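Show me any protein, keeping tokens residue-aligned.
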Amino acid sequence: MTRAVVFAYHTIGVRCLEVLLQQGLQVPLVVTHRDNPKENIWFGSVAACARQHDVPVIFPDDPNDPAVVHMIRDLAPDFIFSFYYRHMLGANLLDIPPRGAYNLHGSLLPLYRGRVPVNWAVIRGETETGATLHAMTLKPDQGDIVAQQPVPIGPDDTAHDVFLKVMDAGVGALREVLPRLVSGHAVHRSQNLSAGHYFGGRRPEDGRIDWSKTAREIHNLVRGVAPPYPGAFTTLKGKAARILGTSLTARPGAIAQTTGSDGVPLYLMSMELEGVSLDATTFKSLFPDGVRPD
């Protein structure tokens, strides 16, 4: 029976682990993260999924710890898979499986290599992204591609909307290529790294709105960091405001209207002031002069 050690986190990790088990792979170990109490945990638990299937789970702070490497080497997996696991795997781990180590990435590699690729794609106004299963190398997101599925990004899709599409695409890509990986017939396609760029992680403070941007750029930022992510923010009359939803077209229920640096209207559809939701009437009473960021 084909054996695979799985490094995974998030709902996509849950669903991909289930694909491996459904297709008959033996998973002797799952490596995951403990949830951070300071983080908004809106996604599924890989640990809970593994326990439901009687798969042992560990939560190492460092997956490259020699004790972890020794444990996995003794398990003699044919494959290692990484599904939204947050740590890099070193050479001592990647060298263990004779059939290869593979990672699922949330973009159409070589585009958007690196961190939070879905958020970056939305913020930068892309109209398409996808999911890629690729061989792991010491440098992130640079290994040969074995499966890839695109998804569209709508003009008002939030990063969460796109993430759900990317998750479905990733699960589909894994399900489709896994029999060929197991049989040794999967085609490996090298990446043209010059055709893409590497992007770093984002911090909550990166969501501050730069009102010198165009309406579309502001709209893209808002939807790229909208909940369950931390949200875009600004300051109005010295008070912290989160802008959670915008539109480039007039719609019923708009709280306020402003313009980008290009003069194009931008409609604020959802917002909070110091943690309290605002409607149009309350906004107008507090800010009769409209949106005037500090």
Summary: The chain has two domains: 4-199, 204-286. DSSP finds eight helices and 14 strands in the chain. The mean pLDDT is 96. The helical segments are 10-22, 46-52, 66-75, 91-94, 117-123, 159-183, 215-224, 280-286.
